[in-house]
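Ops channel
N.P.: pipeline sanity check, posting one input/output pair.
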């Protein structure tokens, strides 16, 4: 019995998937679990595996096609078996007349045309519909045609290039617009002495642990005290999430994805670092998997490595908040009543006012600042 290969839904909001490549071709023998093709969604590229054994047949979609979720894109049949009849008739047909020149009738010029003008226009290749007649009653004369033939062609502006957006860039544009226009954002900014954070990283090993790893661990543990900051807006109300899953904003080609550290509040710092490193490598190579980008309950976006002092980030629905982190920079600040130089970090918390209010967000940010002053106490 023929087995259909359908465009899978890898994410909740996914509507289509783009076919990047066919790893197997029609007529190839297939074993269940073998990679068949590679697809791209708004967040990841993913290899679709064969749902059964047999022969690949009735391929209905080509490389570059955007295919709706759930639509059959091919069949796996037994040797000698034919795919269902609909697969044979539904294969994409070549577009007719692509690249074929179409002859259109030359528009007739307004007014009269002298016989000489008609003859010269034919010889000189002049379009009479674009010639202004200067003869009696607007008649186009031979002189008018000759003048048109000698006139320089009007400069044509180069066609503007319209960059093609990838699925990631397109969906990121749509979702950030939706978030910004529907979620009532408010912002809280806090400067923190990051000296203890720097010391903690030195003790744990700078080569293995990053400031982002430390922030993931600390934020997750503080969120356990502030469950509404870890909540989601469902469209009808607030949903408290039982687990703290920290989503780390990572730059990829054409956009940003949120790679998730699940249950980060109960995960040791070394394991967080190992998971973050693995996710970073997969993100850079374009091989993030569906579980890598789903289930996030709170996002951290760190641009400190780019020399940014502070910024405000847009919330990722349905999450309630995102923490934007700038660089650690030496500044002159009061130390025991005297000017001193300390490493200062600026954090900006963007929150959804439908889920939390200003006081709740401020208490969370205060507790996070305290945790950053004594990271070892929170990390155990």
């Amino acid at each position: 019995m023929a087995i259909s290969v359908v465009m899978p839904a890898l994410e909740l909001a996914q509507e289509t998937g783009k076919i990047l490549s066919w790893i197997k071709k029609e007529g190839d023998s297939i074993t269940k679990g073998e990679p068949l093709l590679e697809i791209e969604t708004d967040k990841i590229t993913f290899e679709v595996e064969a749902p059964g054994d047999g022969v690949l047949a009735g391929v209905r979609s080509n490389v570059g096609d955007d295919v709706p979720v759930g639509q059959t894109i091919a069949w796996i049949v037994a040797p000698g078996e034919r795919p269902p009849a609909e697969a044979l008739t539904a294969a994409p047909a070549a577009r007719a007349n692509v690249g074929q020149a179409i002859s259109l009738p030359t528009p007739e010029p307004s007014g009269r045309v002298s016989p000489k003008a008609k003859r010269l226009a034919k010889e000189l290749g002049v379009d009479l519909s674009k010639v202004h007649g200067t003869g009696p009653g607007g008649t186009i004369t031979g002189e008018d045609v000759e003048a048109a033939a000698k006139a320089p062609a009007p400069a044509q502006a180069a066609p503007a290039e319209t960059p093609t957006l990838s699925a990631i860039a397109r969906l990121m544009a749509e979702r950030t617009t939706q978030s910004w226009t529907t979620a009532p954002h408010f912002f809280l900014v806090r400067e923190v002495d990051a000296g203890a954070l720097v010391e903690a990283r030195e003790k744990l090993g700078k080569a293995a642990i990053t400031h982002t790893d430390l922030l993931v661990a600390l934020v997750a543990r503080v969120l356990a005290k502030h469950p509404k900051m870890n909540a989601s807006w469902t469209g009808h109300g607030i949903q408290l999430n039982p687990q703290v899953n920290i989503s780390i904003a990572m730059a990829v080609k054409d956009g940003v994805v949120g790679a998730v550290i699940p249950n980060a509040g109960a995960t040791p710092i070394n394991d967080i670092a190992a998971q973050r490193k693995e996710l970073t490598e997969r993100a850079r190579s374009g091989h993030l998997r569906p579980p890598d980008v789903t289930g996030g309950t709170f996002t951290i976006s760190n641009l400190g490595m780019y020399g940014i002092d502070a910024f405000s980030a847009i919330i990722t629905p349905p999450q309630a908040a995102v923490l934007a982190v700038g660089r650690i920079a030496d500044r002159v600040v009061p130390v025991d009543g005297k000017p001193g130089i300390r490493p200062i970090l600026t954090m900006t918390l963007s929150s959804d006012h439908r889920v939390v209010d200003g006081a709740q967000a401020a208490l969370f940010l205060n507790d996070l600042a305290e945790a950053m002053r004594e990271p070892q106490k929170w990390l155990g």
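N.P.: looks fine end to end. The longest helix spans residues 269-285.
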